[in-house]
Amino acid sequence: MTKLKKCIYVLAFLVCLTGALWFLQRLLMPKYISENEEGLLSGEYYANAGDNDVLFIGDCEVYSNFSTIKLWEDYGITSVIRGTPQQLIWQSYYMLKDTLRYETPKVVVYNVFSMKYDKPQNEAYNRLTLDGMRWSSVKSEAVRASMTEEESYLSYVFPILRFHSRWNELSGEDFEYLFSSEQLSHNGYVMRVDTKPVEELPDPIPLADYTYSNIDWEYLDKIRDLCKENGITLILIKSASCYPYWFEEWDQQIRDYAEKNQLTYINFLEHADETGIDYKTDTYDAGLHLNLAGAEKSSAWFGKILKEQPGITDRRGDSALAAKWQEKIDYYEEMRAAQEKQLRETGAVTNYHGK
What is the CA 266 to chain-centroid distance, rounded? Predict the structure, then answer.
């Protein structure tokens, strides 16, 4: 056998091996369809990247509580939400940094609730946030900042190292969604139309120390500085979720920071009268997150503030952009109708995505 033929055989073998490993990795990785649906959110951003004037970053209090479609319909504001479950502040920073690889929004809205955490929490939440990010130096930095002591960096580079043992958990969904997925969100907003009112909230458990840690302030500074470097207006918010409890001591620290750095800070819990949010009707899980009615109220009120920010204009007059957003509106209304139908027929919303 000639040297050239040997090289060709070796190359062919390596190509086949790489393809087989890639296929197995796709097969074995969780698909986030019937459970942990929010694991789709990080990856869904890229289909909506570009031409967004407002970026929301943070945890579930942004992707549940603000309707990007409402902001467009009422104000012509293009927006996208890069929220994930229990998104830690350093992950929010890297979400912003990753977004800047694709677009430069005029306004960044950061929800401050996750500043209560000063260290990585667990692998499950890390995976929901990080696995869907496209590979880049930014993702590499995010992984290194987020890993718990038990996690391996290589398992993020090659997820098959983490999920190879899922053989006995494979279902039809793993094959059905091997190369594609359902659409969960509306530019990052996760819809729920059902209602579970706030009946009674548990008394807050006092903390030994309410002081935010140095790492939280470090990354809040990083978010502020990155926005400043790119000419972006940063707005800090505490979203309208009444549980878990938001302590006054936390709130005051954010107010002081915003005043010192000449930033806008809005605590939505203090604006229930203006937003019209009613926790008897506008939450789907007893006050943790808003349902569709609450998210639209929150967005309608916040849109009045956003439209006054530098660079924000009503873009509904752009026919090409309006046509693009009409497709988003159509899917939004389709999902609303499907969830309302499911709610009437079964009394619950159990699978709230599907395109």
Answer: 19
pLDDT, tens digit, for every residue of 273-315?
999 999 999 999 999 999 999 999 999 999 999 999 999 999 9
Beta bridge partners of 80: 55
Cα(139)–Cα(171) distance, integer angstroms: 29
Q: Is residue 211 pLDDT above 90, yes or no?
A: yes
How far apart are alpha carbons 20 and 15 in whole angstroms? 9
Token pair of 288 as six digits: 């943790």
The DSSP H or E segment spanning 195 is none
CA angle 251, 256, 261 (to 5 degrees): 125
Instruction: State which amino acid sits at residue 85.
Output: P
State the chain's mean pLDDT as an integer: 92
pLDDT at 273: 92
The answer to whether 87 and 59 are in contact (CB under 8 A) is yes
> pTM above 0.85?
yes
Q: Which residue stretches of the chain are H helix? A: 3-28, 41-48, 60-63, 68-75, 89-99, 123-130, 137-146, 154-157, 160-163, 172-176, 214-229, 248-260, 272-275, 292-306, 319-346
Contact criterion met (CB below 8 Å) for 69 and 329:
yes
The two structure tokens encoding residue 54: 């407002």
Rounded Cα–Cα distance for residues 113 and 21 (Å): 40
